[in-house]
Specification:
The complex is a heterodimer of chains A (213) and B (281). Chain A is an all-alpha fold. Helices cover 82% and strands 0% of the residues of chain A. Chain A has a single domain (8-203), classed as MetI-like fold (Orthogonal Bundle), CATH 1.10.3720. In chain A, α3 crosses α5. The longest helix of chain A is centred in the N-terminal third of the chain and has 33 residues, at 10-42. A six-stranded mixed sheet of chain B has the order 6-7-8-3-9-10, with helices on both faces. In chain B, strands 2-1-4-5 form a four-stranded antiparallel sheet, covered by helices on one side. The chains are: A mainly alpha (213), B alpha/beta (281). At the A-B interface, α6 and α7 of A face β6 and α4 of B.
Chain lengths: 213, 281
């Protein structure tokens, strides 16, 4: 592991590539998923048409898209991004939708009496009110995206996944185990240092924790 | 300070077919003078909150219209401040930001802040400007909601059972505060309540509403000097007058809800409570 990370640099480059992919893919998934979630949450028409489509798409494991994606992007890096984005988007969409739907009606009524209308209402009341559930969505999107990335890389090119496959082909089991440890460590770090911290902050500010400060 | 005129308002909730639709009230007309404090009093289901929501613009009247000042009401707007039974504060904003949310639309940030601070001072919450709603008690939240409604400088203040969910002590304190605010700002206030004492204590006029058919039963003018004493004979007389009419209305509601087996006399005992005969010997 030490040799791979610092001497030959195989692991370091692979890790950097994977991290770059997940961060771009994850941000795009959040953006697309969030936007779609807001549209579905706000508009009844969109919910009745796109809503069931999203649920149908969510039940398709995103790795299933890889063959099509490989053809679409001619085996380029785009295919892997595509799979990662698809992996995260739906979880985000569904959670944002639920957050928007579950905004307390009294808050919307109160904002209406202050003269807020339509888009301002969405921006000032619905979006902030749905942040806790959007956070759950982001967490799921991250988990799905990370898994999709690893699976896609096993088949595709570059990154930790490909290196893992290469290591297996050379019967370098040390490397295989090392990569698995790295993968789980990344998951752990993101969970503890990013999501837990944000969640704690959000929940206490929204007054959702039992031990209110 | 504007007058509110409710002209022949009817509210019908549409049912599946035409004969299933339900008329809450019909042909209600009421004029509230500028600076007057009027209470809407009635049993549950008489449509007093619905009427208030129509004035607020949150509900649409089936027939008739409501004017505030000279303007006809079509949609909710900041010329009418509303205080709901729940405080309805945005949980992600501090007290100050919550009040500023109401004023930010009309003023720039500095003005909004100073006016929010002014009204929060009026409800004695200057110490809690930067607290979040979940850190406050129910009465404090309701005071923030009042400050928020006032900060828009509305022509009319609409209050929908604002103290219904509070405990007795907090309510008594807030009664005093509302009176103080009313005397200070001289707003026209329309106040929905089911509490007879509350309405006598606070209002200039009490509009007693009934059900089936929904409508105004009687309007009482309260000519008692302020501050009012709930123990004074006039107060008690008025309370009993209102109770005698309201009692009949409540009985009607209960009969409707419970069916034929409702009998308000059931509670009166057929036998003496003192059953241990001879224990005085």
């Amino acid at each position: 592991m030490y040799i791979g990370l610092f001497d030959t640099g195989i692991l370091a480059t692979a890790l950097a590539e994977s991290l770059q992919r997940i961060s771009i893919g994850f941000s795009l998934a959040l953006l697309i998923g969030g936007l779609l979630g807001v549209i579905i949450g706000v508009s009844k028409l969109a919910d009745e048409t796109l809503g069931s489509l999203v649920i149908a798409l969510q039940s398709v494991p995103s790795i299933v898209w890889l063959p099509i994606a490989l053809v679409l992007f001619q085996g380029g890096a785009g295919a892997i991004y595509f799979v990662v984005i698809l992996g995260g988007t739906w979880a985000m969409t569904l959670n944002v939708r639920m957050g928007i739907k579950n905004v307390q009606p009294i808050l919307i009524r109160a904002a209406k009496t202050m003269g807020y209308k339509n888009s301002e209402l969405i921006w000032k009341v619905m979006l902030p009110a749905s942040i806790p559930s959007a956070l759950t969505g982001a967490r799921l999107a991250w988990a799905f995206g990370w898994r999709a990335l690893m699976a896609a890389e096993l088949i595709g090119r570059g990154g930790l996944g490909r290196t893992l496959m290469d290591a297996r082909d050379f019967f370098n089991m040390d490397l295989v185990v090392a990569i698995m440890i790295i993968i789980s460590c990344i998951g752990l770090i993101v969970e503890y240092f990013i999501f837990s911290k944000i969640e704690k902050k959000v929940l206490s500010r929204w007054g959702l924790t039992n031990s209110a400060s | 300070m504007e007058k509110v005129a409710i002209n022949h308002v009817e509210k019908t909730f549409p049912g599946k077919s035409k004969n299933e639709s339900f008329t809450v009230f019909k042909d209600i007309s009421l004029t509230v003078a500028p600076g007057e404090f009027v209470s809407l009093l009635g049993p549950s289901g008489c449509g007093k909150s619905t009427l208030l929501n129509i004035v607020a613009g949150l509900d649409q009247a089936t027939e008739g219209d409501v004017t505030v000042g000279t303007e006809k009401i079509k949609s909710p707007g900041s010329d009418r401040g509303v205080v709901f039974q729940e405080a309805a504060l945005m949980p992600w904003l501090t007290v100050l930001e919550n009040v500023m949310l109401a004023t930010k639309k009309k003023m720039n940030k500095e003005d909004a802040k100073s006016s929010a601070e002014k009204y929060l001072k009026l409800v004695h919450l200057s110490k809690f400007l930067h607290s979040y709603p979940h850190e406050l008690s129910g009465g404090m939240k309701q005071r923030v909601a009042i400050a928020r409604a006032l900060s828009m400088d509305p022509k009319v203040l609409l209050m929908d059972e604002p103290f219904g969910a509070l405990d007795e002590q907090t309510r008594m304190m807030l009664h005093r505060e509302v009176q103080f605010i009313w005397e200070e700002t001289k707003k026209t206030i329309l106040f929905v309540t089911h509490n007879i004492r509350e309405s006598i204590l606070l209002s200039d006029r009490i509009v007693l509403m009934g059900t089936r058919p929904g409508g105004i039963r009687k309007i009482y003018s309260v000519d008692l000097p302020r501050p009012r004493d709930p123990a004074s004979p006039e107060f008690i007389q008025l309370e009993q007058d209102i109770m005698s009419i309201l009692g009949g209305e409540i009985e009607k509601v209960m009969k409707e809800e419970m069916g034929d087996d409702f009998n308000s006399k059931k509670a009166s005992l057929l036998y003496g409570t003192d059953r241990n005969m001879g224990n005085h010997i």
